[in-house]
Amino acid sequence: MTRFALTLEWNGVPYAGFQRQSHAPSVQQALEEAAFGVTGEDVRVHASGRTDTGVHALAMRAHFDLSRPFDPFRMAGALNAHLLKAGHAIAVLDCREVADDWHARFSCIGRAYEYRIVNRRAPLTLDVGKAWRISRPIDAQAMHDAAQVLVGHHDFTTFRSVHCQSASPVKTLDRLDVRREGERVVIEAAARSFLHHQVRSMVGCLAMVGQGQWSCADLVSALEAKDRCKLGLNAPPDGLYFVKAVYPGE
Amino acid sequence: MTRFALTLEWNGVPYAGFQRQSHAPSVQQALEEAAFGVTGEDVRVHASGRTDTGVHALAMRAHFDLSRPFDPFRMAGALNAHLLKAGHAIAVLDCREVADDWHARFSCIGRAYEYRIVNRRAPLTLDVGKAWRISRPIDAQAMHDAAQVLVGHHDFTTFRSVHCQSASPVKTLDRLDVRREGERVVIEAAARSFLHHQVRSMVGCLAMVGQGQWSCADLVSALEAKDRCKLGLNAPPDGLYFVKAVYPGE
């Protein structure tokens, strides 16, 4: 058996997320079909994180097994050729052979997301589907200051989708930084793992702070309530990018 | 009469350039239809530069006249609402009233373009139509060094489309900078004005230098030949962005 680790980029717009769905195209299905096209083997692709419909990836990690050896460099090129031919917006940025016990999901010890807001009155043109446009002026510094309330070890029930399958709502958020770059506001989040919708839920509430609709105290109340009904706003998937997965020894 | 100056952003993919065409959608037509929708007047929109099919704009300047006054802030919002409703990928970033002798094209004393290359083997996903992917490694420093040959006052016949309507092929190129940002190579070009296809032609030849197919001497020979047949390569429109128009007193 040979295990291949992939680094993937995709445009989330055409997909119902990473995970295979019965009635909608998924990144997993596209990759498994490409792998079958290349190798003739039915493989199962595992990713470091699931993503929702419309969420993008700049460097998702994944793996799959093959019964026989295959040059990893040729594998990347062949998978890309199959993906491109099938009209997919998915690219294999890197492919390498890894040890049999390396697992894209279970070996992963850190994950990072980036959320992109365009803060302007005018509609998006080049960034349609790729950022969240907020018309009202938002205060990125106030958002950054409030974000620090969420950093650390907390029960994130308020910021968790009702569909979340995680055993516990308690997570440790390592970093939540907000910075402005002209009309853009970028939010970076890092943790060992996240709950379903956690980043979008945190971003939605920070956007309320940025627009002056919520104070920092309101954010603290929402967190402490441990109640999904106290969520201010869930940000749309358009602006969310999975940017990094960290593994031991990397 | 009231003259309005616009700052425009658009995604060039759906358009046959700025200028109105009989059989293809254009940015000019979309804007004129939106202005008619807002004001009921048939206006003519003039831009600081024409752009080709597939070329993008981050801050094109334009103007049009109305027979009566209209609040410019409301005008921007109303034009955007009409453009969005019609499914256009065009946004009015700014609208202001200007003097009757201010002309988007004839008053313009400087223009700047940016060209975006993604230098990697993997196909594009999020940047399809928005950058030129070059698979072979390119040397951005060699491209920047060679680019300096083109800066200054030259006969740019080699770098001019056969369809160019400019009276003279002699232009002064003020700046042509090439820099690498990770897998991206960005080229910035500034001049009072450019010939048709000039930026794409210069970028195409610099890409040959970057891949080691051309030396700096080859670029000099191409320039000095003043012969379109000596052009190495015309870069695709995908990576080209009109980024700035400069006016006296700004």
TrEMBL record, chains A, B:
One Pfam family matching this protein: PseudoU_synth_1
Example of a GO biological process term: tRNA pseudouridine synthesis
Domain Pseudouridine synthase I TruA alpha/beta, chain residue ranges per copy: 16-106, 146-248
Top class in the EC scheme: isomerase
Xref: CDD domains: PseudoU_synth_EcTruA (cd02570)
UniProt binding sites for substrate: Y113
Source superkingdom: Bacteria
The protein's Enzyme Commission number: 5.4.99.12
Keywords for this protein: Isomerase, tRNA processing
Reaction(s) catalysed by this chain's protein: uridine(38/39/40) in tRNA = pseudouridine(38/39/40) in tRNA
Cross-referenced InterPro entries: PsdUridine_synth_cat_dom_sf, PsdUridine_synth_TruA, PsdUridine_synth_TruA_a/b_dom, PsdUridine_synth_TruA_C, TruA/RsuA/RluB/E/F_N
GO terms, molecular function: RNA binding; tRNA pseudouridine(38-40) synthase activity
SUPFAM superfamilies documented for this protein: Pseudouridine synthase
Active site (catalytic residues): D52
PANTHER family given in the database record: PSEUDOURIDYLATE SYNTHASE (PTHR11142), TRNA PSEUDOURIDINE SYNTHASE-LIKE 1 (PTHR11142:SF0)
Function in brief: Formation of pseudouridine at positions 38, 39 and 40 in the anticodon stem and loop of transfer RNAs.
Assembly and oligomerization: Homodimer.
Family affiliation: Belongs to the tRNA pseudouridine synthase TruA family.
Name this polypeptide is given: tRNA pseudouridine synthase A
Protein source organism: Novosphingobium hassiacum
Gene: truA
